[in-house]
Amino acid sequence: MKKLLLINPVGRRSGYLLSKVSMFQPLNLAYIAAVTPSRWEIKIADENIDTFEFEEADLVGITAFTSNINRAYAIARMYREKKIKVIMGGIHSSMLPDEALQYADTVVTGEGEGIWKQVIEDFENNRLLPRYNGPRIDLSRTQIIPRRDLLHPNYFWNSVQTSRGCPFNCNFCSVSRYLGQEYRQRRAADVLDELEEIKGKYIAFVDDNMIGHSPVSRNRAIELFEGMIGRGLCKKWWMQTSINAADDENVIRLAAQAGCMFVFIGFETLNTKTLQAMKKGINLKIGVENYKRVVDKFHKYGIGVLGSFVIGNDYESPEYYKELGDFLVSSGIDIVQLSILTPLPGTELMDQMQREGRLIYRDFPKEWDKYRFSYVVHRSRGVEESTIYAGNNYIKNKIYSFPFYQYRLLNSPYRIKNTANIYAIYKLNQALKKSWQSSHYYKRFMPLHNTDSDLSIKL
Q: Bridge-partner residues for 308, per DSSP?
């Protein structure tokens, strides 16, 4: 029996990987394992949990995000030196296949499940091609259950995917180019059947937008939530969704009854002009002035809000960072993800930054490890690099320091009134605080007292 070794590489443990409570299963290799013929022995090596060391295999498959691609290339080199074929896939290789082919024998772009059996057959017959393009799968007709039995048992969250694709085209996001602008969704009954087979209680729905953007997708979400309630699944879970999900209280109510603990929402910025530059149309439609109303709608049904914001946009200022810090304290947002704007391969933003010569780190692939949302990797107009780092620290110090941290943590029980959800919010705040304190910029740009005057002096 031949052995297939599938590897999820991590070049540097940071961010969500620093805490067990903020990690969830990566499903891409588990899906590939699910469509691999039974005549193969399969192992998934996952550096989210354990550092990988060389082991024998007949064929190696590696996936990677941009931030970890150099670790992927190093592992690939290790096997190719021993004349073992290496296949690379995932979003970075799909966006830059010519680069990946310099380090692998074969690159699979797109959704690998639809082409993988051909890849295996070609390998077995010694006719492996350098490039394969995985087709976009009709999720309503295809029922592939990922091989969770091959994933590391130490994950807190069991991942489930119910849809792919995004009709939006935000300039900093590569999802629509990678998975298409058509919103493809699995049948609710198929998802429910999968959920019933998962032994763990805690679920991370890893869709880019689980509720979707149309009446059809909302009806599917309602069917799914009602099915979770009707089947008595008793799962506790979180999801990503767009800001407009707050428009339908019935969906939110059903999500809460089905076990939703918190939602991840991309608010991104308080600046309307920045939203326009991001092409974040749905946020513009709802309006920045209504962000707090969105948060309140979820709180009404006991659901926490993980709000994502991005700084490092053009023409930001110390005054804006003060405004954002104040908003994050007063808005009721329970968990804050604050990232530095990062142009990734395959995004309109990257195309723009390369065209305008604004990239700071451009020695590729060597400097891809800087593209992890915690480095300033391009020159923003009207704002200095040091200002962005100092602003980042100012905001995070404000939300994680006395008395505002305590105020935020005490506010969640007052608003949510659900013990399990409150505890999850507390643990995730602790995880993200730890992530910040482990960052490369934490000590260098830390304000002394975090007062408004201190921010001005620091900048």
A: 266, 337
CA proximity to 26, closest of 75, 91, 99: 91
Instruction: Give the closest residue to 455 by CA, choosing from 271, 316, 266.
Output: 316
DSSP structure class, residue 115:
T
The predicted-structure confidence for 391-424, as pLDDT tens digits, reads as follows 999 999 999 999 999 999 998 888 998 999 999 9
Helix (H) or strand (E) holding 366: none
- List the one residue out of 305, 277, 65 whose CA is nearest residue 175: 65
Is the per-residue pLDDT at 457 higher than 60?
A: no
Instruction: Give the strand pairing for 158-160 and 163-164.
Output: unpaired
Mean pLDDT of all residues in 308-323? 98
Residue 396: CB atoms within 10 Å: 23
Cβ contact 411:424 at 8 Å? no
The Cα 449–Cα 31 span in angstroms is 49
Give residue 164's pLDDT band: very low, low, confident or very high (50, 70, 90): very high
Residue 445 has pLDDT above 90, yes or no: no
Question: Which domains, ranges and CATH numbers included, belong to the chain?
Answer: 2-134 (3.40.50.2300), 157-341+380-458 (3.80.30.20)
d(CA 298, CA 305): 7
| Maximal C-alpha separation, the chain | 69
Q: Are 422 and 416 in contact (CB under 8 A)?
A: yes
Do residues 335 and 433 lie in contact, with contact meaning Cβ atoms separated by under 8 Å? Answer: no
Q: Determine contact, residues 448/27, Cβ cutoff 8 Å.
A: no
On the question of a cis peptide bond just before residue 318, with omega within 30 degrees of 0, the verdict is: no
Q: Give the residues across from 6 on adjacent strands.
A: 44, 61
Whole-angstrom Cα distance, residue 221 to residue 210?
Answer: 7
Q: What three-state secondary structure class fits 406?
A: helix
